[in-house]
Amino acid sequence: GGTYPTDTSSYSKCEPCEIGHFSGGELDKCEECKADENKYTPAPGFTECLTCGGHVQNNECSACPEGQGMIGGSCADCPEGKYSKSGACVDCAKGSYSNAVK
């Protein structure tokens, strides 16, 4: 599982599904995990999507909802000048800003 045939004329070779996709092994292609349903795969070759308890961004699961990060041991809105990335509030890159809390 987690692979799909690349040569459908002979089905002699299988390749792993890329990150964000899965195959139960009975398909001739990989299916995409739906991030809007909190589904993801963090690495190639998965047989099913994982379910994230927070939110999915770039095929990574964050423990906190979108726009929040771990502050003082619990999820809280990111302050101005920071944004949510993989469950943490991180500084905006030089030349960019965030004036919205959350």
Give the strand order, joined by hyphens, for the main sheet: 1-2
Average the pLDDT over all residues and give the rounded result: 81
The total beta strand count reads 12
Round the Cα radius of gyration to an integer and report it.
18 Å
Percentage of residues in DSSP E strands = 35-45%
Helix count, DSSP H or I runs of 4 or more residues: 0
Gross morphology: elongated
Would you list the SSEs in sequence order as H and E?
A: EEEEEEEEEEEE
Amount of helix: under 10%
* Uncertain runs: none
- Which class of secondary structure composition applies to the elements? mainly beta
Distance between the termini: 39 Å
Describe the largest sheet.
Answer: 2 strands, antiparallel
Task: Write structural notes for this entry.
By secondary structure, this protein is an all-beta fold. Helices cover about 0% and strands about 35% of the residues. It has strands at about 5, 15, 20, 30, 40, 50, 55, 60, 70, 75, 80-85, 90. The strands form 6 sheets. The protein has a two-stranded antiparallel ribbon with strand order 1-2. The protein has a two-stranded antiparallel ribbon with strand order 3-4. It has a two-stranded antiparallel sheet with strand order 5-6.
Quick synopsis:
This protein has 102 residues and is mainly β.
Task: Output the keywords.
mainly beta, elongated, single chain, two-stranded antiparallel sheet, 102 residues
Which helices and strands, and how do they pair?
Blueprint: E1 3-5, E2 14-16, E3 21-22, E4 31-32, E5 39-40, E6 50-51, E7 55-57, E8 60-62, E9 68-71, E10 74-77, E11 82-85, E12 88-91
Antiparallel strand pairs: 1-2, 3-4, 5-6, 7-8, 9-10, 11-12
